[in-house]
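lol ok so funny story. i was supposed to be doing the assay writeup but got distracted and ended up predicting the structure for this chain instead. priorities right. anyway since i did it might as well share w the group, maybe its usefull for someone
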Amino acid sequence: VREPIADYLREVGYEVLEAGDAHEAIDLVDGTGHVDLVFTDVRMPGELDGLGLARWVRVHRPELPVLLTSGYYGTGWLGERLERDVRVIQKPYTQDEVLFQIKRLLRAPQVEATPEPLPTAI
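and the output, tada:
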């Protein structure tokens, strides 16, 4: 699922860094000079899922927009677990929907705030 949307975003002019799991994504966000947005699925391989990645971003890079995707959003369980300022796009999505949300998040002013301690996910 990651490859087609990454290819599409490159085609429309974005530089895309890809990660196979949340820890790899954290390394990319921490190690690169500049990342403008994190787009991740809630379900990811490994011990840390997309919600955990969003929590990490909120603590370490609170100015960085996060866009989550999930096929389970409609069940209501995800809404209770979202961090502040994290947006969700429900699967199945179109490439144009993702592009619209990314453009919207990149245009929106980001809130500069001191992150609050986050609860541990179980």
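The radius of gyration is 14 Å. The chain has four helices and three strands.
back to the writeup now i swear
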